[in-house]
Amino acid sequence: MTGIIEEFEGNLCIIEVDGKTRDFSRDLVDSSAKAGDVVEWNGTKWVVNCERTVERTKEIKDLMDQLWED
Which tens digits make up the pLDDT trace of 13-26? Predict the structure, then answer.
């Protein structure tokens, strides 16, 4: 299962999974994770997928660059 971290609220981590946001205990999320990271469930914890996070960040940057081109 793959998701994107939306935000942290207290002891909760809000993760978008299949287009829906779900709340998970912060204890179930890798301590290095931050908002915007792509994470994967390994059966016991949400861990950051660094490669997919970098790809996603680049895609968003490219879209923003296109938006502001004139």
Answer: 999 999 999 999 99
> Tokens in use for 31?
């301590």
pLDDT at 70 over 90: no
- The whole-angstrom separation of Cα 22 and Cα 58 is 25
Burial class (CB in 10 A: 0-12, 13-18, 19+), 12: middle
Give the domain CATH number at 46: 2.30.30
Q: Is 41 exposed, middle or buried (0-12, 13-18, 19+ CB in 10 A)?
A: middle
Number of domains in the chain: 1
